[in-house]
Every structure is written in C-alpha cells, then in structure tokens.
Amino acid sequence: MRPKRPRSSALQSRTGRFPCTLAQWTPATPWTLAALLAVPLVPGCATIGYDFPVAPVQQIVIGQTTQQDVQRLFGNPWRTGLEDGRTTWTYGYYKYKMFGRARSRDLVVRFNDRNVVSSYTFNSTEPEDNKKP
Q1: Where are the domains of the chain?
Q2: How far apart are CA 127 and CA 59, in angstroms?
Q3: pLDDT for 78-107, tens place per residue?
Q4: pLDDT tens, residue by residue, 15-49
Q5: For residue 94, how far is the Cα from the chain centroid?
Q6: How far apart are CA 77 and CA 91, in angstroms?
Q7: For the structural domain made of 53-130, what CATH number should be given?
Q8: Which residues of 41-64 are buried (b: 16+ CB within 10 A; e: fewer)?
Q9: Biggest alpha carbon distance in the chain?
Q10: Closest CA to 105 of 84, 82, 78
Q11: Alpha helix segments (H runs only) across the chain
C-alpha cells in the first residue's frame, strides 16, 4: 500500500491548515459584499474599433482601386499592418454585449507594391450588409 501524499494548497498555512473556514470568513465591510452582489447587475458591453460605411465596399476593384481611393471611401484605417510584406488596412467595428446579440463588421484591404488593391475581405454579422446589389 502506498503512503498517502500530503495535499498542498496556496491557501494552506505552514501548519497544513487553511487560514480560515467559510464559516469564519466575513467581508471587510458591508460595502464589499454589496459591491460583489451588484457586479452581475451591471450590463456589460464593449466596443472596439469604429463603424464605417458599408455601401462603398462594392466600389473596390482589385487591380484598380488605389490606397487614396480607399481612404477617400472609408477614411483613415482603424489598424494598419503587413501581410507577406505588403501593406494591409483594416476597418473594424466590434460591439460585444453580455446580454443580446453581438455586432461585428470588418474590412481588410491588401495593397500591392504600387499601393493598388490586390485583394480585400469584408465580413459582417448584419444580414443586410451581405446582400449583393
């Protein structure tokens, strides 16, 4: 028969006992308990990026639309980056809610070395955004 290995926990003191039991625990103040109970009542939401017009997406023509055209249609990009050494611009809007439906829409535009659109991707959770003209 194997000898029992002692269990360890970050809550155990050097004596091997927990510093207090649940029955002994009391909040520091009544306000602490009230704050802990109120947290689930706060509606949570977060918005990242900024909304951008969807209609001009149809005007992007691969091999023809320039960086200046894209900036004129959508404004300054929310993020810029590189993909395989080529410039990318991202327009994004992401709205998350604790309750209810989240919304998101993003446009990633990739440019070639002449600053002309080489490809783009548009995604949205809004059904009306994905209808073709």
Answers
A1: 53-130
A2: 19
A3: 999 999 999 999 999 999 888 888 889 999
A4: 555 555 555 555 566 656 555 555 555 557 888 88
A5: 7
A6: 5
A7: 3.30.1450
A8: eeeeeeeebeebebeebeebeeee
A9: 78
A10: 78
A11: 30-38, 67-74
